[in-house]
TrEMBL record, chain A:
It comes from Stappia indica. It is found in: Cell inner membrane. Keywords: Cell inner membrane, Cell membrane, Membrane, Transmembrane, Transmembrane helix, Transport. The chain crosses the membrane at residues 12-32, 52-70, 91-113, 133-156. Part of the tripartite ATP-independent periplasmic (TRAP) transport system. Residues 29-158 form the Tripartite ATP-independent periplasmic transporters DctQ component domain. One of its GO terms (cellular component) is plasma membrane. This is TRAP transporter small permease protein. Belongs to the TRAP transporter small permease family. Coiled coil: none annotated. The complex comprises the extracytoplasmic solute receptor protein and the two transmembrane proteins.
Automatic annotation (TrEMBL), chain B:
This is TRAP transporter large permease protein. The chain crosses the membrane at residues 47-65, 134-157, 169-194, 214-235, 241-259, 279-301, 307-326, 333-352, 358-381, 393-414. It comes from the Bacteria. One of its GO terms (cellular component) is plasma membrane. Keywords: Cell inner membrane, Cell membrane, Membrane, Transmembrane, Transmembrane helix, Transport. GO terms for molecular function: transmembrane transporter activity. It is found in: Cell inner membrane. Residues 5-417 form the TRAP C4-dicarboxylate transport system permease DctM subunit domain.
C-alpha cells in the first residue's frame, strides 16, 4: 500500500530538489565571496552579483517548500490539537492541508499572472544586467507549482487513507510532528 | 481588527499551518475590508520579496550553522569552555552557557545554538550528577543567546521590516548578549550555593588544560571575527558576510576532515528544511502586511494607542506585557513579522530608538521561546534529551526566564547597554 | 456645476521623500478636495506603508489594486523601453531641456502607456538631477578612467563603462561605508538625496555631470479612468497639469539646485528649502564640465548609450524618437538592424 502513495514518490523528488536548492545557495555564497575578495583585493567588482543571488534565493526557496512539507517543518501550533480525539485530529489534518493547498493555489495563480505580464511586456530588470525577468520568474513559479502538486498529492493520499479507514496511515500522512512523536 | 485577531488565534490554535493562516487572513481581509482587489498584487509583492537581497542572509546563516553542527567544532569548543568555567559552583552548566554564547557568535538562530550545544552537552548530565532540570534549563536558556549575540536572523528580519541598519542592530546586541550570559551564569552560581543538591562535579582549571583548550576555541572566535568583522569594517553587507561565513566554515569542516558529499547533503536538507519554512511564513506575512497597510488598519491601532494618552514608559510596559503574553502562545517568527510593522512606528513616535527596540524585541522573542506552553527551545532541548517529560525542561528554565525579565528591566533603565557600542562604531 | 462624489485610492512615492511630503501628499489631501469642494477625495498611501519596493508599482496600477499610482519610470524602464526615451543617461544636462523633451514626447508616452501597460498617464515630473559624487579628486571627465563607480541602471552602467570607469552595483545604504573604505571611488545619485543620505561626510568632489532626472509618473488604471464621469476626468487632468506637475517640477528645481549649493558650501544654500528633511551645508569641491567635455559627453552618449536603447526600442520607436526628442536635442538616431 505504502508504495502506491503518490506523495511518497513526490517526497523523493522533493529531496532531490532540496539538494539542488542547497547547491544553488552554496553557489550563490561562493559567487558573493569571490565578488567581495575581488572587490577588496584586486579592486575589481563584478556587476550584478547581488541581483543573481536574489534570483538564486527565490528559486532555491520555492523549490525547498516541498521538502519542508514532507519533513513536517511548516509550523503548526498543536497545543489544542493534541488534546483532541484522533478522529477530530484527522478532520483537522484535512482542513489544515486543504487550507494550505488552497492558499498556495491562490499564490500560484497570481505568480502565474506576474510571469505572464513579464512575458507580454518582454520585461527586463531595470538593472545593469537587464535580465529578462521571465527566466528567473519561470524557474521560481515552477518551484511553487511543484509545491502545490506535493500539497495536493498529500491531501489526496490522506483523504484516500481516511476513506479506506486506514487510520494509522492517515495519521502518518497528516498528523503534526509532535502528535506523531507521541504515538 | 479585533475579529481578525481572534480569527487568527482560533485558526492557529486549531493546528493550521501558520503560513496558511497568514495567507488566508490576507485574502479574507482583502475581501471584507477593501473596495479594491488587493489580491491582484500578490504575485508582484511575492516576487519582489522573494528576491530581496537582505533576506538571503537567513538561509546563509542557517547553512553556516548546519555546517558547523556537522564539523565537530562544537564538541571541541565545549570541552575548551569547560576547562575555563568548570570550577564555578554549577560546573558544566557554565560551560553550557559559555559554549552557547560562543557558538551564538557564529550562529544566527537560537534553535541551531540549542540543538548544537545540547547534543554536545547532554551526555554529561548523568556522568557528573547535576540536577537534570537545571541542566536542561541552562541549555535552553543558553540557546536563546543565539539571536541576541550577533549574527541574528531575528535582527535581520526586524531590520528589513523597519528599515533599520542591520549592522548597527548586530552591534547593539553584543553587550546585552554578554551581560545576559553573565546573568545566566550568576543565576546558576546563586542557585548552586543556596541549594548544593543542584550542583555536580567541578573541575579545577589546570594550566595544561587551559593551554590545550586554545586551539579548540580559536575556530569559533576566528569565524566570529571574519563574519562580524567584515560587516563592521565595511567590507561586506550582512548577506555577503553570511556567504563568507558559509565558505569559511566549509573550509573548517575540511580541515577537521568532516567534509563529504553525504555531509553536504545533510547540510542542504537541514538548511532548506528550516529556511524555506521561515521564508514561507515571512512571504505570506508580507502579503498580509500589504493588505493591512492598504486597508488602513495600521492607522486604527496607531490612533487607538495615541488616544490612550499614556506616558511613553507605561505604553512601553504595556506593549512588552502584551508581547510576553502573546509570546507564550504564538510562534515567535509569526509574532514578530506580524506586529513589528505596526508597533515600531508607534514606539518610535513615542521617542524610543528603533535600534534599542530591535534589541528589546529580541529579548522578548528569547523569552517567548522558553515560556510554556509553546516554547520552541524547550521542545528542542527535550528532543535532544530523548527521554523523560517536557515539564522538566519548563521547570528548569524558570530561573532563566526570571533572568530575562531582569535583563529587560536593565534595558529599560539603561538604554545605553544597547546603544553605546553602535554609537561608538558608527 | 458640482462634480459627482468620487473617492479614489492612490499609491505614491516613498514616505519621507520630498516628493511624498511636499508634492503628492498635499496634492491629494488638500488641493484636490479643496478645488472640488470636497467632491473628489482620495485615500493616499505611501508605497513604504505597503512594503512595496517600486518596480511593481506600474503593475499594481494596471491590475487595479489602486485607482491612481505614482512611481519612478527609472525602476520600470525594463517594462517599456519608451520610458528610457526621456531619461537616457547624460542626455538632458539641464532641467529646461528635460521639460522640452517630456513635452515633445508626451503624446507618444500617453499612447504607449495606454496600449502596452493598460494605464492612463496623467503627468510626469522629475525628482532631481542625478549627479556624480566622488571620494577622490576628480576634476574632469578624463579623471574617471579606472575609477570604480556605483551605478543604478542599465544606461548609467553603459555610460560609466564608456568613460573608462568600472561600474559597480550595490545597495544605496551601502554607499557611504563603501566610499569611506575605498571600495568605490564615486557614485551617482540625486544632488538632494546624496546630501540627505550624508554622502557629504565621505565625498570630496561633486561633479555636475547629470546622468538622469529620476522622472516620476502618475497614472490611472484605465478601467477605473474610463468609468469616471467625464467632468471628473477633465477636473483631474487639469489639477495634475496645473497644480501637481508644476509643484513637482518646482520641487525638483529647488532640490537639485539647493542640493548642489549646500553640498559645496555656496552662500545661497538654504538648508530648510526641502523640509521636512533639511540639507547639510558641506564643503565639497564643485566640478563643472567644460564646453569641450560637454561635447565629448554628448558624443559618448550617442555612440555608447544610444545603441543599446535603439536595440531595445525598435525601428518604429526610434523613428518616433527622432521626430520628437531628436528634434529638440538635434540628434538623429539610426534604427538598430
Ligand atoms: Na548569533
Ligand atoms: Na512561549
Amino acid at each position: 500500500m505504502g508504495n502506491l502513495l503518490v506523495s511518497r514518490k513526490l517526497a523523493r523528488l522533493a529531496r532531490f530538489s532540496a539538494i539542488g536548492s542547497g547547491l544553488l545557495l552554496l553557489g550563490a555564497a561562493g559567487l558573493m565571496t569571490v565578488e567581495i575578495l575581488s572587490r577588496r583585493l584586486f579592486h575589481f567588482g563584478l556587476i550584478g552579483v547581488d541581483e543573481l543571488a536574489g534570483y538564486a534565493f527565490a528559486i532555491a526557496m520555492a523549490w525547498g517548500f516541498a521538502q519542508a512539507l514532507f519533513m513536517r517543518a511548516h509550523i503548526r501550533v498543536d497545543l489544542v490539537y493534541l488534546q483532541l480525539p484522533a478522529g477530530v485530529q484527522r478532520f483537522l489534518d484535512v482542513v489544515a492541508l486543504g487550507a494550505f493547498t488552497g492558499i498556495i493555489g491562490i499564490l500560484v495563480t497570481h505568480a502565474w499572472g506576474t510571469l505572464a505580464e513579464s512575458l507580454r511586456l518582454g520585461a527586463r530588470a531595470s538593472t545593469p544586467l537587464a535580465t529578462p525577468l521571465w527566466i528567473p520568474q519561470a524557474l521560481w513559479l515552477a518551484g511553487l507549482i511543484f509545491f502545490l502538486i506535493c500539497l495536493a498529492a498529500l491531501l489526496f493520499d490522506l483523504m484516500r487513507a481516511l476513506v479506506r479507514g486506514d487510520q494509522a496511515l492517515a495519521a502518518e500522512l497528516g498528523a503534526s510532528e509532535s502528535a506523531l512523536r507521541r504515538r | 481588527m479585533g475579529i481578525a485577531l481572534i480569527l487568527l488565534f482560533v485558526l492557529i490554535a486549531l493546528g493550521l499551518p501558520i503560513a496558511a493562516v497568514l495567507g488566508w487572513l490576507a485574502v479574507l481581509l482583502d475581501w471584507l475590508l477593501s473596495p479594491f482587489p488587493l489580491q491582484r498584487a500578490f504575485g508582484e509583492i511575492a516576487w519582489s520579496h522573494s528576491i530581496e537581497f537582505t533576506l538571503i542572509a537567513i538561509p546563509m546563516f542557517i547553512m553556516m550553522g548546519e555546517i558547523l553542527l556537522r564539523s565537530g567544532i562544537a564538541d571541541r569548543m565545549y570541552n575548551g569552555v569547560a576547562a575555563w568555567l568548570g570550577w564555578l559552583p554549577g560546573g558544566l552548566m557554565h560551560a553550557n552557557i559559555g559554549a552557547s554564547a560562543l557558538f551564538a557568535a557564529t550562529s544566527g538562530s537560537s534553535v541551531a545554538t540549542a540543538a548544537t550545544i545540547g547534543t554536545t552537552a547532554m551526555p554529561q548530565v548523568d556522568r557528573h550528577g547535576y540536577s537534570e532540570r537545571l541542566f536542561l534549563g541552562s541549555l535552553a536558556a543558553g540557546g536563546t543567546l543565539g539571536i541576541l549575540i550577533p549574527p541574528s536572523i531575528n535582527m535581520i528580519i526586524y531590520g528589513f521590516l523597519t528599515d533599520t541598519s542591520v549592522p548597527r542592530l548586530f552591534m547593539a546586541g553584543l553587550i546585552p548578549g554578554i551581560v545576559l550570559a553573565a546573568i545566566f551564569s550568576l543565576v546558576i552560581v546563586v542557585l548552586c550555593i543556596f541549594k548544593p543538591s543542584l550542583d555536580g562535579d567541578r573541575s579545577a582549571p589546570t594550566a595544561r588544560a587551559l593551554l590545550a583548550s586554545l586551539p579548540a576555541l580559536a575556530p569559533p572566535l576566528g569565524l566570529f571575527a571574519v563574519v562580524i568583522g567584515s560587516i563592521y569594517a565595511g567590507w561586506a553587507t550582512p548577506t555577503e558576510s553570511a556567504s563568507i561565513g558559509v565558505i569559511v566554515s566549509l573550509m573548517l569542516a575540511a580541515v577537521y576532515r568532516r567534509l563529504s558529499w553525504e555531509m553536504l547533503v545533510e547540510v542542504f536538507i537541514g538548511t532548506i528544511r528550516t529556511s524555506s519554512m521561515m521564508i514561507l511564513i515571512t512571504l505570506l506575512a508580507f502579503l498580509l502586511n500589504f493588505v493591512i497597510g492598504a486597508t488602513g488598519m495600521a492607522n486604527v491601532v496607531n490612533d487607538f494607542v495615541s488616544g490612550l494618552n499614556w506616558s511613553p514608559l507605561s505604553t512601553m510596559l504595556m506593549i512588552l506585557l502584551v508581547y510576553l503574553v502573546l509570546g507564550m502562545f504564538m510562534d515567535t517568527l509569526a509574532m514578530i513579522v506580524l506586529t513589528i510593522p505596526i508597533v515600531t512606528p508607534i514606539v518610535v513616535g513615542l521617542g524610543y530608538d528603533p535600534i534599542w527596540f530591535g534589541v528589546m524585541m529580541v529579548l522578548v522573542a528569547e523569552t517567548s521561546v522558553l515560556t510554556p506552553p509553546i516554547g520552541m527551545l524547550c521542545y528542542v532541548v527535550h528532543g535532544v534529551r530523548g527521554r523523560g517529560d517536557l515539564t522538566d525542561v519548563f521547570i528548569g528554565v524558570t530561573p532563566f526566564i526570571a533572568a530575562l525579565m531582569g535583563m529587560i528591566a536593565l534595558m529599560l533603565a539603561w538604554p545605553e547597554l544597547a546603544l553605546w557600542l553602535p554609537g561608538r562604531l558608527y | 456645476q458640482d462634480l459627482p462624489q468620487t473617492k479614489l485610492s492612490v499609491i505614491g512615492s516613498p514616505v519621507n521623500s520630498p516628493n511624498w511630503t511636499n508634492v503628492l501628499q498635499p496634492f491629494w489631501n488638500e488641493t484636490v478636495p479643496a478645488d472640488s469642494n470636497g467632491r473628489v477625495t482620495a485615500n493616499a498611501v505611501s508605497m513604504t506603508d505597503l512594503g512595496a519596493k517600486g518596480p511593481e508599482l506600474m503593475r499594481l496600477a494596471a491590475s487595479g489594486v489602486a485607482d491612481i499610482v505614482a512611481g519612478s519610470t527609472t525602476l520600470i524602464s525594463g517594462e517599456l523601453p519608451e520610458n528610457d526615451s526621456i531619461d537616457l543617461a547624460g542626455l538632458a544636462q539641464d532641467i529646461d531641456t528635460l521639460q522640452k523633451i517630456i513635452d515633445a514626447y508626451r503624446p507618444t508616452l500617453e499612447e504607449r502607456y495606454r496600449e502596452r501597460l493598460g494605464v492612463v498617464p496623467l503627468g510626469f515630473w522629475p525628482t532631481g538631477a542625478q549627479v556624480l559624487w566622488c571620494a577622490t579628486p576628480v576634476e574632469g571627465l578624463d579623471d574617471l578612467a579606472g575609477k570604480k563607480v556605483r551605478v543604478f541602471s542599465t544606461t548609467t552602467s553603459s555610460l560609466t563603462a564608456a568613460l573608462g570607469a568600472t561600474p559597480v552595483t550595490m545597495a544605496f545604504n551601502e554607499v557611504v561605508p563603501a566610499m569611506q573604505r575605498g571600495v568605490i571611488d564615486c557614485a551617482f545619485t540625486g544632488s538632494n538625496s546624496g546630501n540627505n543620505a550624508k554622502w557629504t561626510d565621505v565625498a570630496t568632489h561633486l561633479v555636475d555631470l547629470t546622468v538622469g532626472w529620476g522622472v516620476n509618473f502618475i497614472v490611472a488604471n484605465s478601467k477605473t479612468w474610463d468609468a469616471l464621469d467625464p467632468a471628473v476626468q477633465t477636473f483631474l487632468r487639469d489639477e495634475v497639469r496645473t497644480k501637481l506637475e508644476p509643484a513637482g517640477w518646482e520641487m525638483a528645481r529647488v532640490a537639485t539646485q539647493q542640493g548642489i549649493w549646500c553640498s559645496v558650501g555656496d552662500d545661497r544654500c538654504e538648508p530648510e528649502s526641502t523640509a521636512p528633511r533639511n540639507l547639510t551645508k558641506a564643503g565639497l569641491k564643485l566640478v563643472e564640465l567644460t564646453e569641450a567635455e560637454s561635447a565629448r559627453l554628448r558624443e559618448i552618449v550617442a555612440e555608447h548609450v544610444m545603441p543599446e536603447f535603439t536595440q531595445a526600442c525598435g525601428s518604429d520607436c526610434v523613428a518616433r524618437w527622432n521626430e520628437t526628442v531628436g528634434t529638440v536635442l538635434d540628434i538623429q538616431l539610426n534604427a538598430a538592424r
